[in-house]
């Protein structure tokens, strides 16, 4: 089966071509620079940029995969959640292609795709569902922070989510307070490398709560007060590195602590993680250390698949089509029901 997948839920325009579980092409164009001046994603600008870039990016993916539209057996796109106007661009384009080619169309839930992206691995990237086992999955990005119990393929239960800011948003907003460019997550990761994570003590919100929810806005506020109470600190490069390392340690402690606690409680033997924040090197390292200590297997999404991409949409779509979910949902719209239950 050869499949074209499109993803436009936020500020990445992406197209992928999949063939028999293998990622033949995965073209991702980030709009981060476009939104940097605004300190966050501007939905109207994102939609217009998707509109400008989607066709060339889809053509580039087809070209890289050595595939023509006539060779496609199916088309898929993210159906949500995401920015409505941005989603609409990829969803309607994919439906139009499917309709014109008279091929099945599948709308994919963005979070469900994140849940399975850690099972795409190797070079070339390909689906490794043979290794699948029940797990607790951490999805952690600029828009979402959630824990999901993946009981079996296609059987999920949302355990907890953030009650305010997402972890990536916390990286980005605290970075903004430090004067770092948007998105600040990668920059904090880089600066923290030579900083002392124990230099400043920031709260670990909800880490000991009995539920699986998260909260990060209080941490952001404590960084704001900290900077107010330490005027001039931002002029000292080493203190900035220490601050980055300390904030990062607080976020990572919460993410790792709550993930492991949920895995332990549910008795799963595997933890997975995906989403843009999973690029964070300390998070990857601390998850690996904690899982090893607990005797848990760990599947981290490949770095290239942590941030939003069409490959994860396509791999899941192909899997669903092979399971017989072939209805041509040309009338399917955004605002999806969640398969996370
Ligand atoms: O998944 P993603 O591309 O988009 C959505 O937000 O849906 O994730 C982007 C987020 C941003 O908040 C960015 O700061 C964060 O992921 N991020 C990181 C790192 N790389 C990306 N945060 C911490 N450390 C990183 N290395
Ligand atoms: Zn995402």
CATH architecture of the largest domain: 2-Layer Sandwich
Residues in helix, %: 40-55%
Biggest sheet strand line-up = 3-2-1-4-5
CATH fold group of the largest domain: Nucleotidyltransferase, domain 5
Stretches with pLDDT under 50, minimum 5 residues:
none
- Radius of gyration, Cα only, in angstroms? 20 Å
Main β sheet profile: 5 strands, mixed
What this model shows, in words?
This protein has 341 residues and is an alpha/beta fold. It is 43% helix and 20% strand. The radius of gyration is 20 Å and the shape is globular. It is built from 11 helices and 12 strands. Helix 5 (167-177) runs parallel beside helix 7, helix 6 (185-192) crosses helix 8 (237-266) and helix 8 packs parallel to helix 9. The strands form 3 sheets. A 5-stranded mixed β-sheet has the order 3-2-1-4-5, with helices on both faces. It folds into 2 domains: 2-125 and 305-322, 2-Layer Sandwich (Nucleotidyltransferase, domain 5); 133-301, ATPase, nucleotide binding domain (Nucleotidyltransferase, domain 5, 2-Layer Sandwich), CATH 3.30.420.40. The structure holds 5'-O-[(R)-(carboxyoxy)(hydroxy)phosphoryl]adenosine and zinc ion. The site of 5'-O-[(R)-(carboxyoxy)(hydroxy)phosphoryl]adenosine (KG4) has 19 residues, from helix 5 and helix 6. The site of zinc ion has 5 residues, from helix 4.
């Amino acid at each position: 089966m050869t499949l074209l997948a499109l993803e436009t839920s936020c500020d990445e325009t992406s197209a992928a071509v999949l063939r028999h579980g293998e990622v033949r092409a995965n073209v991702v164009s980030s709009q981060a620079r476009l939104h940097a001046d605004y300190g966050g994603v501007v939905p109207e600008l994102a939609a217009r940029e998707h509109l400008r870039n989607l066709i060339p990016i889809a053509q580039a993916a087809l070209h890289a995969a050595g595939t023509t539209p006539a060779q496609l057996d199916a088309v898929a796109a993210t159906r949500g959640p995401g920015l409505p106007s941005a989603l609409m661009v990829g969803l309607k384009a994919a439906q139009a292609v499917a309709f014109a080619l008279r091929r099945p169309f599948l709308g994919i839930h963005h979070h469900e795709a994140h849940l399975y992206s850690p099972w795409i691995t190797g070079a070339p990237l390909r689906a490794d569902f043979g290794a699948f086992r029940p797990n607790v999955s951490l999805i952690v990005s600029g828009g979402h922070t959630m824990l999901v119990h993946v009981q079996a393929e296609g059987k999920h239960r949302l355990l907890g989510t953030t009650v305010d800011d997402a972890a990536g948003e916390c990286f980005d907003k605290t970075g903004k307070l430090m004067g770092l460019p948007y998105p600040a997550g990668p920059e904090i990761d880089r600066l923290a490398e030579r900083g002392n994570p124990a230099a400043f003590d920031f709260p670990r919100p909800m880490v000991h709560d009995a539920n699986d929810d998260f909260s990060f806005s209080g941490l952001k506020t404590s960084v704001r007060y900290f900077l107010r109470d330490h005027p001039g600190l931002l002029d000292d490069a080493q203190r900035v590195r220490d601050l980055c390392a300390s904030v990062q340690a607080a976020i990572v402690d919460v993410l790792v602590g709550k993930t492991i606690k949920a895995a332990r409680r549910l008795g799963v033997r595997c933890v997975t993680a995906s989403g843009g924040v999973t690029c964070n090197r300390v998070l990857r390292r601390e998850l690996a250390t904690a899982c090893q200590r607990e005797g848990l297997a760990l599947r981290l999404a490949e770095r290239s698949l942590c941030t939003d991409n069409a490959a994860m949409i396509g791999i899941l779509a192909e899997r669903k089509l092979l399971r017989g979910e072939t209805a041509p949902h040309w009338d399917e719209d955004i605002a999806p029901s969640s398969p996370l239950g």
